[in-house]
Amino acid sequence: MNRRIVYLDNNATTQIADEVKEIMRDNEDLYGNASSMHTYGRSSAAGISWAREEVAKLINSDSGEIYFTSGASESNNMVFNIFRDIIDSGSDRNRIIISTVEHPASIETAKYLEGKGYKVSYAPVDNIGRLDLGQLESLLSNDVILVSIMTGNNESGVIQPVKEASELAHKAGAFFHTDATQAIGKIAVDVKDINADYLSLSGHKFYGPKGVGALYVRKGAPVSPFVHGGHQENGMRAGTYNNQAIIGLGKASEIARENLETERKQLWALREKLRTGIEERIPNVVVNGSNDENLSLPGTLNVSFPSAEGESILLYLDLEGIEVSTGSACASGSLEPSYVLLAAGLPVELAHGSVRFSFGRYNTEEDVEYVLEKLPPVIARIRQMSTRKA
Ligand SMILES: Cc1ncc(COP(=O)(O)O)c(C=O)c1O
Asked: Catalytic site residue 330?
């Protein structure tokens, strides 16, 4: 008998959509170097150009503004690198602002720069984990060159006020970057509406392949080479193209754009079914982030279970075939409480006991019912053990 698996870790990564697998398979012999002038080369170049259009359409940009990368970590690094170059060239503006709840792909890059002597300020969040715009405004002055705020948080699911943050950044004369990795394919993301100068996204978070993503750079915004070498990506990111992966990203973008609103509603319904079910069945739970549809990514539910360690819950659920996460996947393996939840003021004990359920396109109501059957006894058992220990 096959073991039942309920995958609820879609914020860590998603499975590749069948349509994406199919187009990648159809193009498995597309090995021509897209920079070659012959027919094979031109076929590859045509596939890449189609994918660039699809990524551009997904975020309402122009295809000339899309740079393919290996994923969002690289895209974020590319942005910080651009401003490092500008600061190194003696710019009067030399401070970068990020929020305290950015993904490690931004926070660790900013800290690395700070360690090298660059000036970085951290904009705090309120008690649901949403950027405090007043605090951001007070941090802004004429020495700030870049503000980087994520569109939606990977742990709490909180949607950030990026449009307002972008406006404040621009008013102060700074550029604005948003890491939209978790928001893409879940809520509408429009670079013109946000008025973003830069935006990062990653294929594997929305049913595309791993190791491919993109950076949007608004036409006219500064850009500088990140990987030196050949002339690919306008000389900004050298290296022979991974044709299949890029075409897969194009397909994932097309599907995400066509199904956005239907999927958003589906994810929210599953999230709410699980949330209300947990609140009905398990005493003393704290839902982190927001239960407002306009303030939360639709598929993310982060819950703290006082007197139960997140890691224990994860392991017991895994035995039942339910795959969830504590904190961010990148921080797992460490027993540090989630810095994202701590930044929103959650006490350490509750941050330790938090579990992230993240839904995706392939989850069903039966999945939620299965979790609602298995989770309450797991929590009761762990709580019982922890009181015995105490
Ligand atoms: C908000 C956010 N930014 C960046 C990343 C890194 O993306 P990638 O795996 O494509 O480097 C992630 C992945 O967890 C993320 O959630």
From this structure: yes
Burial of 108 (0-12, 13-18, 19+ CB in 10 A): middle
Q: Which of 10, 55, 201, 205 to mutate to test the pocket of ligand 1 (most atoms within 8 A of CB)?
A: 205
Give the pair of three-digit tokens for residue 55.
Answer: 């990524």
Interior angle at CA 229, CA 225 and CA 234, nearest 5? 50
Confirm or reject CATH 3.30.420.10 for domain 18-255, answering yes or no: no
Q: Which CATH number describes the domain made up of 6-14+260-389?
A: 3.90.1150.10
- Are the C-beta atoms of 219 and 64 separated by less than 8 Å? yes
So where are the chain's domains?
Answer: 6-14+260-389, 18-255
Check if the beta carbon of residue 104 is closer than 8 Å to that of residue 181.
no
278-293 burial, b if ≥16 CB within 10 A, otherwise e? beeebeebeebbbeee
What is the full per-residue pLDDT of the chain (390 aa) written as tens digits?
Answer: 567 999 999 999 999 999 999 999 999 999 999 999 999 999 999 999 999 999 999 999 999 999 999 999 999 999 999 999 999 999 999 999 999 999 999 999 999 999 999 999 999 999 999 999 999 999 999 999 999 999 999 999 999 999 999 999 999 999 999 999 999 999 999 999 999 999 999 999 999 999 999 999 999 999 999 999 999 999 999 999 999 999 999 999 999 999 999 999 999 999 999 999 999 999 999 999 999 999 999 999 999 999 998 999 999 999 999 999 996 444 455 568 899 999 999 999 898 889 999 999 999 999 999 999 999 999 999 999 887 655
Cβ < 6 Å from ligand 1: which residues?
Answer: 71-73, 103, 105, 150, 154, 179, 181-182, 202, 213
**pTM higher than 0.85 for the full model?**
yes
- In sequence order, what are the beta bridge partners of 67? 215
From 74, 153, 154, 204, mutation site for ligand 1 pocket: most ligand atoms within 8 A of C-beta: 154
